[in-house]
Amino acid sequence: MRLATVTAIAVASTLTIVSAQAPAQPPAQPPAAGGGRMGGMNMQDTAHKVANGGIRGAGWQGRPDPGTGAVNDASLDVKGSDLEIHTGPAMLYWNTANTASGDFTVSATFSEPKYMSSNDHPHPYGVFIGGSNLDKDTTNALYCAAYGRGTFIVREFAPAVVNINGRGAASDAIHKAAGKGEAVDQTIAMSVKGSRVTCSINGTEVASYDKGEVTGAGKIASTDGLVGIRVAHNVDVNVKDFKITKQ
Q1: Which residue from 188, 230, 227, 189 is spatially nearest to 76, judged by alpha carbons?
Q2: Strand locations in the chain, DSSP E?
Q3: For the ranges 35-49, 70-84, 157-171, 172-186, which has the lowest average pLDDT?
Q4: In which element (H, E) is residue 212 found?
Q5: I want to staple 24 with a disulfide (CB 3.0 to 4.6 A). Which of 102, 123, 137, 221 is the partner?
């Protein structure tokens, strides 16, 4: 019988530990799924500045995509064990207390209270793994992110942008918002097990890769490293149950 434990994720200044059974700056991003966008960004669509921007949560840090704004143009607030995020520029958010190596799963549930509340087209959000040099020009991170229209993107900064699943793909597993201003949520997980790296959304595996497809020359150095949150620009989203499950 194999057991798994869920590693404490640093969210507030105090940590919550949960037990469970197993189941640099990067350059501008090329077009993503759904048209001429950068990580969900329309080339005519600029990132706005969020009122009362900044990071309010012990240990948390952020990095905007280059040329899209500053850290304080977006906001992250720790509220108990949850995160409330409003972008601004597209962001990577992480806490240096949150690392994973070997076989593990990083997961979180993302809720858009009002779909497309700060834009007129969908933008994605999800989790990243393999983070390193996040505050340098040699940033490494691999993320899987979902759109409320029913598609997802797998992409990495290495530090150049690498589109792992092209311009994205559709999946019936992804929840679709009923319309602009309606609520939609997604549970997104990235897992490393042996030689495989997978992305699951709402309990269904939507993509799987050999480690050699996402690491090595021109890719991220390793799937080990910092883990965190990826949110594209002009998005209002809440994050719950952010955790590392270690096998």
Answers
A1: 230
A2: 5-9, 16-19, 54-56, 60-64, 75-79, 82-87, 91-100, 104-112, 125-132, 140-146, 151-157, 161-163, 169-170, 184-193, 196-201, 204-210, 225-231, 235-246
A3: 35-49
A4: helix 211-214
A5: 137
Tokens 């890769």 correspond to: 209
3-class SS string, 159-196: CCEEECCCCCEECCCCCCCCCCCCCEEEEEEEEEECCE
pTM, two decimals, is 0.86
Fold of 5-246: Jelly Rolls (2.60.120)
Domain ranges across the chain: 5-246
For residue range 102-130, list pLDDT tens digits in order: 999 999 999 999 999 998 899 999 999 99
Contact 150, 178 (CB under 8 A): no
**If you average pLDDT over every residue of the chain, what do you get?**
87
Structure tokens that stand for 5 in this block: 């434990």
Burial 126-153 (b: 16+ CB within 10 A, else e): bbbbbbbbbeeeebbbbbbbbbbbbbbb
Strands 75-79 and 54-56: parallel
H/E stretch holding 213 reads: helix 211-214
Distances (CA, A) of 4 to 97, 137, 145, 246: 19, 35, 24, 5
Q: Which two tokens stand for residue 230?
A: 């990826």
Q: Determine the pLDDT at residue 247.
A: 77
Question: At 214, which helix (H) or strand (E)?
Answer: helix 211-214
